[in-house]
Amino acid sequence: MKKYSKSSNFYRNIKSSFYNRNESLLKAELDRNRVYLKQPPRDKCKLCGSKLPETIDFTKHLVSYKFCRKCDHLNGIHDDTLNFAKEIYSNEDGSDYSKLYLEDNYNDRINHIYLPKADFLIDQLSKKISSVYDFGCGLGFLVNSFLSRGIDAKGGDVNKTLINAGNGIIEKNFDIRPLESIDIERVPSHIKSLDVEVLSLMAVMEHISNLDEFLEAINLSSFKYLYYSVPIYGLSVPIESVFENVLPRHLSGGHTHLFTEKSLEILNKKLGVKPIAEWRFGTDIQDLKRSIQISLQKTGSSDYFIQRFENEFSEYADQLQEIIDKNHNCSQIHVICKKL
Question: For residue range 191-232, what is the model confidence (pLDDT) as tens digits?
Fold first, then answer.
């Protein structure tokens, strides 16, 4: 089953900091990229292990990228090592990385982003789900959403700050603390030990240092269904490449590589799963709108003109995004799979 698109009405409010704090957020993102540039060079594809070409395909926000000529996976030209992952996600209990999420509106994110994710899984399986484990749960948005639908849900993450904050919120609503902190070096063994009906990996696999070890651990864990989302190469990438003075949402910082239509097939084979439903949508057009608005501000355009542009563009933005989604050129995909 293939599903496409969603309303973008939520984007402007939930991502308000992208507009209001472009300069400071861009600086922080470039600092993360500088950490990434200190990592060893990557000469083999992150996904399939094939030798990468000598040619750099493009450079943006300090980092250069290459497409694998065998599986088409998009690779940053440095390894995202375990030390890099620690510095970005878990050092000092992940307090720096957690700022990206602790300042957002929790309930709006639940209602507009995570409840639709939970309902998509529930609707597609058409059955009572006994248990869900969401690895990389962060503040527990998805766990909270499944709990509100009466499903036994737990989660884990390497970021202690997000786990503590998320448990505090969920405890107020459900009188339980279902989120657990996981040592980043014990992630594979933790995944192997899971015994759950649905294993959820929302925006996780693009952050894993040793992807092959992680995929092998998933193969060895006990689950019936796998529910994952990954960022994919699409229109947002060339948009970000053109607007270097605008915060990159999609390819930068913790996202050092992106999946493509072809590399997704390789991923599913390595996971040992068969897709049974897909939901493709992106915020590529919203990224374009944000990039134009911030650039207009930098050129001294009046508030009236900028607001006029936003009002006019918003009238047809979702129609443009739907075209991109249906042509599989959007920035994100959600996949429900059955274990083989």
Answer: 999 999 999 999 999 999 899 999 999 999 999 999 999 999
- Give the residue from 157, 133, 128, 130 showing the smallest Cα distance to 143: 133
73 contacts 45 by C-beta, under 8 angstroms: yes
How confident is the model at residue 88, as a pLDDT?
80
> For 288-318, how does the pLDDT look when each residue is reduced to its tens digit (9 = 90+)?
999 999 999 999 999 999 999 999 999 999 9
Integer Cα distance of 313 and 36 in angstroms: 35
Query: Taking the domains of the chain in order of start, what are their residue ranges?
Result: 2-339
Question: Three-state DSSP class for 252?
Answer: coil
Exposure b/e, 311-338, CB count within 10 A at least 16 = b: eebbeebbeebbebbeebbbbbbbbbbe
Buried b (16+ CB within 10 A) or exposed e, 97-111: bbebbeebebeebbe
Q: For residue 288, give the 3-state DSSP assignment.
A: helix
Query: What CA–CA distance (Å, rounded) separates 81 from 208?
Result: 9
Give, in words, the CATH class of 2-339.
alpha beta
pTM comes to 0.91
| 127 contacts: CB under 8 Å, gap ≥ 6 | none
